[in-house]
Amino acid sequence: MLKLSLPLRLQLSLVIVVGAALLNHHAWYCLGVYGAIALLWAWLLRVPIRRLGGLLGTELIFLSLLALPLGWERASFLLVRSLVCLVTMNSFLLTLPPHSFGIALKGLPVPAPLKENLLLAGQYMEILLSEVTRMQRSAQLRGLNGTAAWLRYASAAMIGALYLRSLDRAERVYAAMVTRGYNGQLPIDSPLRPKERFAILVAWAIAACVTLTSYRI
């Protein structure tokens, strides 16, 4: 895995995503550049291919339902651009160590309250995903193997149980945070090093050049 600090990895991922999102429509050559960068980013981070493919398949099915009514030409560009953004961010998230989302937010240039809300939301998402994993493992132990069996098992009652289990665990996590001195503010401020700032500036400059070029083609 590429040895970069978590804040730097997050900001480089955001540079790729923001640059691709601002591309002019039907600028396929510039989108191809971002696609190559996204694939290179996934290779540098050593993302698990099977997990990445599973996530992309589910996300693209949902996005295709939203994009196809816009017309085939417009929808195809939007789907490929969304694929580039998803490859980039999923590569970052799948290689993120457990409980390190707050570390990744340290260098993000956003207000502190927003950082705290994002950190708590990320923590609760980890709780929810861990509960889903435990329920899937429990279903497999009961002989319900395969995707179809899991979908039959995930009835409305099980979704309600998942919500209650996640809520109870989130309350216990919050109580533990209060016990350890949490007062509504998190020590998440940590500036980037000069070399990391330079890398971010270079990345933004490259992204700006590629994105602006898409409006001149």
TrEMBL record:
The chain crosses the membrane at residues 12-45, 52-72. It comes from Nostoc favosum CHAB5714. It is a multi-pass membrane protein. Keywords: Cell membrane, Membrane, Transmembrane, Transmembrane helix. CDD domains: EcfT (cd16914). The lineage of its organism: Bacteria, Bacillati, Cyanobacteriota, Cyanophyceae, Nostocales. This is Energy-coupling factor transporter transmembrane protein EcfT. It is found in: Membrane. It comes from the Bacteria. Its main location: membrane. Signal peptide: none annotated. The keyword Transcription does not apply.
